[in-house]
Design goal:
Blueprint (H helix, E strand, L loop, with lengths): L1 E6 L6 H6 L1 E3 L7 H12 L4 E3 L4 H5 L4 E4 L3 E3 L5 H11 L2 E4 L4 E6 L8 E6 L4 H19 L2
Length: 143
């Protein structure tokens, strides 16, 4: 189960921000769209890569490539996801209902971003996806 949203109002408490997201279209994004928007949010200027054999060489089959970051894919790489989380000030919360929430408190425009992912099967993968989705929403607002 996934949910992504932008919280209503400015400077909401963490509990309210996690309780009342407004659904957005990020759940329908492809991995490429998620990665490109997350890279934009992180200030990574790179190009999309997905070539045969890439998964054998780098451990994932698609990524953003930049000369500063190299091959970057926070959907598959714990280190990339962690650095993205830190750079954007995204917080993580493990919920009692088995979901992980990735969120950022309200910014100067009054937007706070929240993404929920089910974490019952693979907590690391769910966490990376929640971080990347929250970052993609931040990148989307930068357009």
């Amino acid at each position: 189960m996934s949910l992504i949203g932008i919280c209503k109002g400015a400077f909401l408490s963490r509990q309210l921000a996690l309780a009342q997201p407004v659904a957005l279209g990020a759940l329908l994004m492809t991995d490429r769209e998620l990665l490109e928007l997350a890279a934009k949010a992180a200030g990574i200027d790179g190009v999309w890569q997905d070539w045969d054999g890439m998964d054998i060489r780098y451990g994932f089959s698609q990524s953003i490539y930049s000369k500063d970051e190299g091959y970057w894919n926070p959907l598959d790489d714990d280190g990339d996801a962690f650095r993205l989380m830190v750079k954007l000030g995204i917080d993580i919360e493990w919920r009692s209902d088995g979901r992980v929430a990735a969120y950022r408190h309200a910014n100067a425009n009054g937007h706070c971003f929240t993404a929920f992912e089910s974490s019952r099967e693979d907590r690391a993968s769910a966490t990376r996806l929640a971080i990347t989705r929250a970052a993609a929403e931040i990148g989307k607002r930068m357009e």
